[in-house]
Design goal:
- Two copies of one chain form a homodimer.
- Chain A has about 325 residues and is of the alpha/beta class.
- Chain A contains 13 helices and ten strands.
- In chain A, a hairpin with a 5-residue loop joins strand 4 and strand 5.
- The radius of gyration of chain A is 21 Å and the shape is globular.
- The interface between A and B is large, with 50 and 51 residues.
């Protein structure tokens, strides 16, 4: 129940999620008093599917990750991850500090056998009205070729299971299309991915390929992924604010203003559904368990999306499917 | 006279540049016959300021940089750089293969004393109706902290001279605002930049800070810079194509379509002037001489912009100003 805004957003979102998912049960981790106060709006059926787990503290947003992890005892984030660790919860959704969430998850939960490092992954809509899996978004700022290959495999599994693509296309982010372009780790990963027949590796993609849907899975290290995502979000934010601002040069005729408003609404709505409310939720991929990061500034609708997304990840048994894929690959390589 | 399209674009652009810059003289390097044929449209005054330098070959676009450099003898690119090297030309403008242009420039021209590696730099318009200097865009895919510091110094000089900013703000691109965030080379560069009093270092900036004009100079390694620029251009291209495409859901009423057209034109025109025609031209910064890279797919207007930009770089004596700045800094550090 942390995040930039806290329970006043996450709790109403939780109630909405309970309504639209009749089999969902939620453990709400935070200050009991605050949660109880906000639960007054809930009906008895909703309350029957809620359990409050008291947490005295929250992880602060402006704290250094290592200190935060050291001082994490009794924070809602740590208690929530602990509930997952003990098998009491199937997944943890948090709007809290990303670095701390990744750090605590790595520390407390186990990695899938064979996976070296977890990666932060999200799903980006593209202009083909399809979606692209993007990872890593910042869990690892330095990646070996082995890590990039593992990210490619994990991304491929998610594309198959969550966006229902048979033989999803997988690309490595680079600064050119030619084989000899870019960093050594990328070139090495490319050479190996080409040989893995069960991965549909299509070669390198560049920054401008993301939104045009050239690939179903785009793999890069966490530094690049973070820059890519923030740049994209920044450009889109600037454009939306440009639409919404009053354009003094436009004729102030009422009818023209009305049409302008309608057009802006249309564009904002249809703009490849790049609405953060709809694609909120990044998974920490590579863990045996499910931990989902919601935008810190997520509103009610966006946080509800993150819960819905988490349910899909649970239903599709993503960690198990990744384990299966890795087992098949390692059996093949033994032969 | 190379590039994706060749003399049919670059030559008319050259003629336009001659008209708007009465003191400009141009050396056109390429196949004499082709140039002479295209020069039929030129008037005698323009022709009096043109000299044709014959080049039998061009650098091919799909060639590996090292092979291209080895086989560059008698290519227009090599001859043009040679003219700069021999002092016969003040600058070289090329639409040719970027990697080869940087490689050949490094090989044939000298670096400013104290500069370890040249960087590719461009100017990006921002929503404050100002401009941001962005470097490196791909000349160096791995950068030491020393290189990043030198890029910051060079970028700062360009911001002062070309976009007329006193004490330009300089930021390092990173994936967070806190000092302990990101890669080691960036943290080391930050620690040193903070101590250089003649550089107005403001800290880290992120991908979404570029277009909002948070900083006047944004420094990163060439891999990141390339991803950042291509991502930004990709998002903008997708948005523009979205505007231009027919929206089937829109009412086909003539009046609404007309207003839509006007609106699209306005947005396209005013959209922070992010029109590649206007900001075409990246300089290979750090050389004692001036070499400018134009977009390979630049149209007439865009290539003319690159020539105009080159003239400003010559007039402002950018390499000399960088030399001066480095001399002052090294004198101070000796004290």
């Amino acid at each position: 129940m942390s995040g930039d805004i806290g329970p006043s957003v996450t709790l109403p979102a939780a109630l909405q999620a309970l309504t639209s998912n009749p089999r969902l049960k939620l453990l709400l981790v935070g200050k009991t008093k605050i949660i109880q106060k906000l639960l007054k709006k809930a009906n008895s059926e909703q309350i029957s599917r809620i359990e409050i787990i008291h947490a005295e503290h929250i992880v602060l947003n402006n704290i250094k990750p290592l200190s935060a992890i050291r001082q994490s005892k009794e924070t809602s984030m740590r208690i929530a991850i602990d509930l997952v660790k003990n098998g009491y919860a199937k997944a943890c959704v948090s709007s809290g500090n990303t670095a701390v969430l990744i750090g605590l998850s790595k520390l407390m939960l186990k990695l899938i056998n064979g996976i070296k490092r977890p990666a932060l992954m999200t799903i980006i809509p593209n202009i083909k009205k399809k979606q692209t899996i993007l990872l890593d978004l910042g869990a690892n700022i330095n990646c070996t070729s082995e890590m990039l290959i593992q990210f490619a495999i994990m991304g491929s599994v998610v594309a198959e299971e969550i966006i229902n693509i048979i033989k999803p296309k997988v690309a490595l982010l680079n600064i050119g299309k030619e084989e000899n372009k870019g960093l050594d780790n990328i070139q090495k990963a490319a050479a190996i991915l080409k040989k893995i027949t069960s991965i549909n590796y299509i070669g390198y993609a560049e920054g401008d390929d993301l939104l045009i849907g050239k690939t179903d899975v785009l793999v890069c290290d966490g530094f690049i992924g973070n820059v890519l995502l923030k740049t994209m979000e920044g450009v889109i934010r600037v454009i939306f604010s440009f639409f919404k601002s009053t354009d003094k040069t436009t004729n102030n005729n009422y009818f023209i203003q009305l049409i302008k408003k309608i057009l802006i609404k249309k564009i904002t709505k249809h703009f490849f559904n790049l609405n953060p409310d709809q694609y909120n939720g990044a998974i920490i991929l590579g863990l045996k368990n499910i931990v989902i990061k919601s935008h810190g500034s997520a509103n009610e609708k966006a946080f509800k999306s993150a819960i819905d997304y988490t349910i899909r990840i649970i239903q599709k048994q993503i960690p198990e499917k990744i384990t299966d894929k890795l087992n098949i690959l390692s059996l093949r390589s033994i032969k």
